[in-house]
Structures are given as C-alpha cells and as structure tokens.
Amino acid sequence: MSQQQNGPTSYFPSIEKKYGRPIAEWQELIRASPLQKHLDLVNWLKTEHGLGHGHANALVRHTLLEDGRAH
C-alpha cells in the first residue's frame, strides 16, 4: 500500500502532470526569483507561469519550508 501524502507535497504529482516540469525545476525557479515574500512568489508563478493558486501556493510553501524561510 502506498503512503498517503499530506500538505503541499500532495499536489506535486498533479503539478508535474499538468505543467510538464519536475518539482525540482519549479523550486529552482522559486529560489532564483528576486522575490522573497510568500504571496509575491505565488502571484508571480500564477501570472508568469500560468499556475493555479493552489499549485503555486503548494510549491512556494514547500520550498520556503525546505529553505527555512517559512513563517
């Protein structure tokens, strides 16, 4: 039986399928952005890369948590 994913990572399979990029690539884009605030990064992913709000939010949240930058 596979383990159920919770939190932001539960969105990752659908993000990769829908937008055609691996999660690591999205994280590289987020980390390379000059933007620092969570909502600024979410809005940037939505406007510049066409992501839906939930997907953008999950990517930013997970990346900032990994980097120790989440509040």
TrEMBL record:
It holds the Pfam family DUF4287. It comes from the Bacteria. This is DUF4287 domain-containing protein. It comes from Blastococcus goldschmidtiae.
